[in-house]
Amino acid sequence: LAKTTQPISMDSYEGQEVNITCSHNNIATNDYITWYQQFPSQGPRFIIQGYKTKVTNEVASLFIPADRKSSTLSLPRVSLSDTAVYYCLVGDLASGGYNKLIFGAGTRLAVHP
Amino acid sequence: NAGVTQTPKFRVLKTGQSMTLLCAQDMNHEYMYWYRQDPGMGLRLIHYSVGEGTTAKGEVPDGYNVSRLKKQNFLLGLESAAPSQTSVYFCASRPPGLETYEQYFGPGTRLTVT
Predict the structure, then answer these.
(1) What is the secondary structure of chain A as a DSSP string?
(2) Set of chain A residues whose Cβ sits within 8 Å of the Cβ of B5
């Protein structure tokens, strides 16, 4: 599984767009990029997943450049409730089908009023 | 549909005591996982199961045992608890297939070993 690097923490204000970039220089051809969100005292929650270009859902967008060595999670117009830890994970869906996730330390996002 | 539930929510053990954490899911998922999360850190995989009657080791399996006698339940056992096992334990499940990385997590069990 490819190693990922992301900022330890970020600060933002309500209503702003937040972009969290994850570096994964050793990403393999079959690897997908997945982001999870974790609130205090809760289990992680799946946000979004992508392979290349752009993916958008009702919560976030995921931008992946052509070389796939990085990815950016974009949260539009954040609110206080978006304060959480965000994890970037990279892995091969077909690696035994077991989907063993490797979590790093994540990015702690603090949204201020 | 309760999703993934964990029992108990909190527990305090003394060194050397044993206990079992129960994870239950009602989504008919094949794969189940046990993670631990230490303060300020990401989750680390302890053991996982790809189906009823099967288990496998993850990153940090030492000191833990698991069993998957029924598809909906995944048990994590600590035979002789140590202070280093003080942590928050999360269970997760996911359906089979290669379309998604989405795992569904339970609310966690906070374990303190004194």
Answers:
(1) ----B--SEEEEETT--EEEEEE-TT--TTEEEEEEEE-TTS--EEEEEESSEEEE-SS-EEEE-TT-SEEEEEESS--GGG-EEEEEEEEETTSTT---------EEEEEE-
(2) none
